[in-house]
Design brief:
The protein has about 200 residues and is α+β, with helices and mostly antiparallel strands. It is about 35% helix and about 15% strand. It contains six helices and six strands, in the order H-H-E-E-H-E-H-H-H-E-E-E. The strands form two sheets. It has a four-stranded mixed beta sheet with strand order 3-2-1-5. A two-stranded antiparallel ribbon has the order 4-6. A hairpin with a 5-residue loop joins strand 1 and strand 2. The longest helix has 24 residues. The radius of gyration is 22 Å and the shape is elongated.
Length: about 200
């Protein structure tokens, strides 16, 4: 509200609000986000103005405030380029980080966004994943690829559902980062990696 009362626009207010959330590890956006399989933080962010123009980043690392980078991309997308080139409104991965650096945004060390709690969760999930892969490897010894699945299928022929042996299921967080058709500025920002969960069985 302070931004609006001081003459700022809706996009300015949205950016400031999201920056606050990105600094709170409980939101799983920015600092303290769940870590990727490599143990790093990767974030998505989108911001849309009242004309429906958007700026977005995906799986960007080493940026403290991805929403600010999305805002810079939004502003940059409105500027004409030489040779009738079309400016981007979405950048992802290392390319997004390089673009941020070219605009003199601070690029922090890879562990700069990793909180103690997130690191501990990642270590636990890594141990769980290693144990699950070990069990699967042992169950497949002496059989052809997919043999374990076939055995379960044959044992379940009389059932209406097909049950598979225990698996480690990696659940990646789905974060919506597409523009909205309405004239309201909205954003979506979230870490792109989520915990690994164990499933006793997978039923399809």
């Amino acid at each position: 509200m302070n931004v609006l009362s001081e003459g700022g626009g809706a996009v300015d207010a949205v950016e400031v609000a999201i920056r606050v959330l990105e600094d709170k590890e409980i939101t799983n956006a920015g600092y303290g986000s769940n870590l990727s399989l490599d143990g790093t933080v990767e974030c998505d962010a989108t911001i849309v103005d009242h004309f429906g123009r958007s700026g977005a980043v995906g799986a960007v690392g080493q940026i403290q405030h991805p929403i600010h980078l999305a805002r810079l991309i939004l502003d940059y997308s409105a500027k004409p380029l030489s040779l009738r080139r079309v400016p981007p409104n979405l950048l992802a991965g290392p390319g997004a980080t390089d673009f941020a650096e070219s605009l003199h945004m601070p690029v922090i060390p890879p562990d700069g966004l990793v909180s103690h709690a997130a690191r501990e969760r990642w270590l636990k999930w890594a141990r769980d994943l290693k144990a699950a892969e070990s069990r699967i490897s042992q169950s497949n010894e002496g059989s052809e690829a997919g043999g374990a699945f076939q055995e379960y299928a044959e044992d379940s022929e009389e059932n209406e559902t097909l049950q598979y042996p225990p698996l480690a299921v990696q659940q990646s967080q789905l974060s919506f980062s597409g523009p909205y058709p309405s004239g309201i500025s909205r954003t979506s920002t979230a870490g792109t990696a989520s915990p690994l969960s164990m499933s006793d069985r997978l039923v399809v």
